[in-house]
Structure formats: structure tokens, C-alpha cells
Design brief:
Elements: E1 5-8, H1 19-27, E2 30-33, E3 37-41, H2 44-48, E4 59-62, H3 65-77, E5 87-90, H4 93-98, E6 110-112, H5 118-128, E7 133-136, E8 138-139, H6 145-153, E9 157-159, E10 162-168, H7 172-177, E11 182-185, H8 188-197, E12 207-211, H9 213-221, E13 228-230, H10 238-251
Parallel strand pairs: 1-2, 1-11, 4-5, 4-7, 5-6, 7-9, 8-10, 11-12, 12-13
Antiparallel strand pairs: 3-10
Length: about 250
């Protein structure tokens, strides 16, 4: 089956120079962008109820740009000054580089996993975890139990401050009007949203792509067949993974 219509479950890029559009031109595909989830930031008042003093922690774990946005939003709202010595551990280089929006980026305090997997994140934390107190900034309803379990097993001192919550978006109209050949997911919550919108959803030959090990796990646990898994050593982004998949597919 040829790939003609692809759904990216994220907002449309604001720049026309986005590599997604170059990919669409190169492979003559139609791209549709539709976020499957909506993020709602917790207020400073809601955050205070968790009784977590951010200034008492020496390192922060980030698995998404959203977590970074809401972490620094909360700090600004509550007038919390984050120490310049704070270390940051990120799931990918792309997430790490996003920190430049908020801090003076120095490699001696920003670390990231080699291939976007939890294992590579754990490897880099292991090298620097002595005497650190960790904050794992995450969503109220989307915590990574693998990360939490690893921190517990390795006797790390940590807290999981909730900075925002994830709400499923109404995508019934988009999926009802168009039959997509390929759908790309970026979070476990996006997969959850699919089934909240369509409880009886059947894949019926639609290809599925997933970015991040937790998203891949969510796709498979939902009983769907996964065709594109990113990131990988040769495919650090979803665009790169799509490029390889489409190139290989077109050769057939």
C-alpha cells in the first residue's frame, strides 16, 4: 500500500522551513498536523500543595520540552531562583538544547542520553549521580515508572514534582474525515487519546510511528502494530525516521 496521507499528532510547525515540509515535497505525501493532547499547566498555588522546595535539589531530569517549559514557568511564577550549579539530565540532545531558551548552556552541567532511550539516560545519570538530589519534572498523569523505579533501585534521593497535566484533545472530526496511511505518535498520552476518541479503533493496515521508548511501549500495549520506532542511532528525529521508512517503502 502506498503512503500518501500522513498524520503528525503534534501542532503544525510555525516555520515553513520545517524539515517536515521538505519531506512532504520530496516524497509527494500529504501531511496533516493535529495535536492529540492538550497541556494544562498547574498553577503556582496547585504546585505549592506538593510541598516540594525546588531550591533544595541539585539536578533536574527532563524527558520533554514541555517539562522544561512548565518547570521554568513555575519557577518564574513563584519567584524561585534556580542555582547556576544545577545539573540537567535530558532524554535526548534535542531536549537538552532546548534548555538554551532558559539557561546559559554549559556542557559541564547539561547531560543527555546517547540514543533517546531510558537506558542511555540512566547511563549518563550513573556517571554523575553521586551526592545529587534529583527532581523528575513530569505531568500529573504521565509519569515514567521506569525512571521512577530506576531512581528507587539506585537509591537516589528524588521527588517527582507535577508541573502540568495532559488532557486528550477531540480529534474525532480529523480521523473521521480522512483515512490516513500513517499516523505518528510522540507521547503515551497521544496513544491514550486515540482510544478515548475511538474506543473501538482498528488499525486496518494503517502504519504507526512512535517517538520515544515509552510511546513505542504504549503503542504495542494498545495492541497496535508498530512500523516506525524513533529515535535510533541513524534516526535521531521523527523526520529522519520517516525519511528512511518512506525511502525504503518506495523501493519496493
Amino acid at each position: 500500500m502506498s503512503i500518501k496521507k500522513v498524520l503528525i499528532t503534534q501542532p503544525r510547525p510555525t516555520s515553513e522551513k520545517s524539515p517536515y515540509f521538505e519531506l512532504a515535497r520530496k516524497h509527494s505525501i500529504e501531511l496533516e498536523f493535529c495535536p492529540f493532547i492538550v497541556l494544562e499547566g498547574l498553577s503556582g498555588k496547585e504546585f505549592r500543595k506538593q510541598k516540594i522546595d525546588i531550591t533544595q535539589y541539585t539536578a533536574v531530569i527532563f524527558t520533554s520540552r514541555n517539562a522544561i517549559d512548565h518547570f521554568f514557568r513555575i519557577c518564574e511564577e513563584l519567584k524561585i531562583s534556580v542555582s547556576q550549579d544545577t545539573k540537567y539530565f535530558c532524554i535526548t540532545e534535542a531536549v537538552a538544547l532546548y534548555l538554551q531558551k532558559f539557561i546559559l548552556y554549559r556542557k559541564r552541567k547539561v547531560f543527555y542520553g546517547a540514543d533517546g532511550t531510558n537506558k542511555s539516560l540512566f547511563d549518563v545519570i550513573t556517571k554523575h549521580k553521586e551526592n545529587e538530589r534529583f527532581l523528575y519534572a513530569c505531568s500529573e498523569n504521565q509519569q515514567d515508572n521506569d525512571i521512577i523505579n530506576w531512581l528507587k533501585e539506585n537509591k537516589c534521593e528524588f521527588e517527582t514534582p507535577f508541573m502540568y497535566r495532559t488532557i486528550s484533545n477531540d480529534v474525532k472530526q480529523v480521523l473521521s474525515e480522512v483515512e490516513f496511511d500513517l499516523i505518528c505518535f510522540f507521547t503515551p498520552s497521544g496513544v491514550k487519546s486515540l482510544f478515548e476518541n475511538f474506543p473501538r479503533y482498528k488499525q486496518n493496515g494503517t502504519r504507526i510511528g512512535a517517538f520515544g521508548s515509552n510511546t513505542s511501549k504504549a503503542v504495542e500495549e494498545a495492541g497496535l502494530t508498530l512500523h516506525i520506532k524513533a529515535p535510533a542511532p541513524e534516526m535521531p528525529s521523527m523526520v529522519a525516521a520517516l525519511e528512511k521508512f518512506l525511502s525504503d517503502h518506495n523501493k519496493k
